[in-house]
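seq as requested:
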Amino acid sequence: MTERSTESGRVTPLELFFDLVFVFAITQVTGFLAEHPTWDGLVRGLLLLGALWWAWAAYAWLTNTLNPEEGAVRLVVFGSIAGMLIVSLAAPTAFDGDGLVFGIAYLIVRLLHLILYAIAGRDDPELFRAVLRIVPSAVAGPGLIVAASFFQGPTQIMVWAIALAIDYLGVLFGHMRGWRVSPEHFVERHGLIVIIALGESIVAIGVGAAGLPLQGGTILAALLGIAVVSMIWWSYFDWVAYVSQARLAEASGAERATLARDLYSYLHLPMVGGIVLFALGLKTTLHDATSPLQFIAAVGLCGGLAIYLGAHIALRLRIGGGLGHGRPIAAVVLLLLLPISTIVPALAALGLVTTVLVLLITYEAVRYRYARAWIRSRRGEFTMDEAARIGRLSGGAPPSDASP
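struct tokens:
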């Protein structure tokens, strides 16, 4: 079994193949939210996304440690892909008739992950002990999701919430000792999953416009939608990905693993979740651009983007960069637009949201132009002290001083 270098390694075709199933899973969650535009549906949809994300994150850590295309590992990964497909198929009815199917398939996917990780740690005692530490939570969490299929209503939701809490908090034990992280691969893998989530927003444009005459209002809504998606892409890949990679590469041992857990496994969930919610709002807007949005759709359109930016703010705080300026203001403005979006036509609401995002990116592009250019030219190969010094010299500031 071939292990990755702790400093390098690119995403393999098999990992991308695995991610295709996650694409389908995200689509299923968006469809579920669209069919259940209520607070109860929103809670259930977010619980679904939380479970799917944690399974994906588990395999992102696994394939960051070993090469998934070597020997028998490839066959087991194919088995995991098949299991994730069943999980995705059952997702829309995971709280109804197919709850048991979802739970069993999900448990199998997670058990296969543990088996592969244990094999990877055969010659690495620290890694093996790290894997053993997460076994109780990684089994108990999915096991409770299986048990949740025998309940209904609020009790079922409560069991799901407890299951995810156990799963997510289980990795806190042991202070991440023994885990191995290849920064370049880890950053690339999570960047690709952000692109996959953005793809769901583009699909939402197509689904929302399906069957409508391609005229002025529909075309304008589609253009505004792709403008927002482009700004989301810009906000992540312009500098965030490089700064995160630099901070991760600068750390080592348990500190690096802890950063990887916090910046990616934890904080990328609200990023992806925010994009999924925005896709819900965008799909609803395209479908009926002249009517005001229902509250849940408005939560998706405005609140989803606020959650996405909030995750960026939290990431910046985690790497020691302070609160920042543009993104906190933009997040607050988006939240203020939420009640307005339930009064004005949906197309107008989308126009307001687009304006906020465009102004944010324009502000960052002008205010931090020198620092951004320097960060991009180094592509993550710099220290945080160097980035802070460049920020001070340029009057604007990447990472740990006054970055966007």
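The chain has two domains: 1-180, 192-404.
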